[in-house]
Amino acid sequence: MKKVKQFSIAIALCAGFAISAQQTPGPDQKEAITISGATAHIGNGAVIENAVLVFENGKITAIGGANTPSKGRVINAQGKHLYPGFIAPATSLGLVEVGAVRASDDQDELGDFIPNIRSIIAYNAESKVVESLRPNGVLVAQVAPQGGTISGTSSIVQFDAWNWEDAAVKLDDGIHLNWPNSFRRGRWWMGEERGWSPNKDYTKDIDAIKHFIANAKAYGNSKSASENEGFKNMKGLFDGSQKLYIYAHGEKELIDAVTAAKESGVQEVVIVGGYEAYKIIPFLKQHNVPVLVRHTHQLPLMADDDYDLPYKLPKLLVDGGLLVALQNSSTSGFQTRNLPFYAGQMVGQGMDKETALQLISGNAAKILGLDNYGTLETGKSATLFISEGDALDMRTNQLTKAFVDGREISLETHQTELWKRYMEKYSRD
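-> structure tokens emitted (429 positions)
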């Protein structure tokens, strides 16, 4: 009887895991696949009507008009739209499952200067949050740590994997730095006034950052036998193999951050946020600094800002000649599913639809240094999807097929299962 009870418990646990687990990763591509008849949105501003796209062994082998020869299994996508998988930069996806449950929150660690912390080893490939992004076409993301001054190292993953080793597309691609604010709100719990006031520690905080970066550079140039994991993980900033992602918003902070990084020998700098970047476009162009703009659906940060500044900011930067991509708030990863609709908002601000698409595809790939993703071009990864309509419009973005590196993936999630369950409940007479 005891063995029977144990067996029953084991079966119940397995059933519970099966219900809550992510979809099983798709099988490796076995044959060539052709998608024909769709309107192909390349991701670099180009569009091909009545397109034919062929991919084999996870790579796009041909793309062109209706006269392009098909091969293998043919998917008729007449009247539908074909897109590259969307890319979400600088996000905490897979690091936080339930914000209120500390045990499921791995987005930050103790310490202010911890570039040796690798976000990838905490990435949960079976996250329900990650799973929920796939039906909207978000198939690739940069998983970044948060907190402190230097938060750690990010990595780039695709959303069809058993574990972080399988998910990894590009390991340790960048270091993430939270730049201090020159103004801060009063800490009322310490008897300070509640309003904004100059940050008396601003200069000291910047000096600490400069000092740490200088020591890291000196460590990399030395032949010291001592091991310093923090300094060792900064080496890529000085030889160009890694990028420095600086989270900053104010005009002064942006100028100070870029100037300090460049003077310290950092080769590649990317601004994350950049709320007032539109005020210093020539400066950013001079230093070849791209911007990952925060999501558009938010209120202005300052009382005297234009009421619609967050909505039109990406267009202001694009019109100014900067390389721009969209980045959802890092502290609310679940909202990243709305990334295509934030891009769609740009169309309402007067941006061309294909340019808006680039903010979450080709441009994002360029900024992250992803040569294999972001556009529908020969030789690139077959990470793409078919939608019934415009993928930037929440009313028509209905995916029918999606592929990651050529593997056909399921678009079912725990949310679609609940939808079907309760549709059945309320559809009864």
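Residues 1-21 have pLDDT under 50 and may be disordered.
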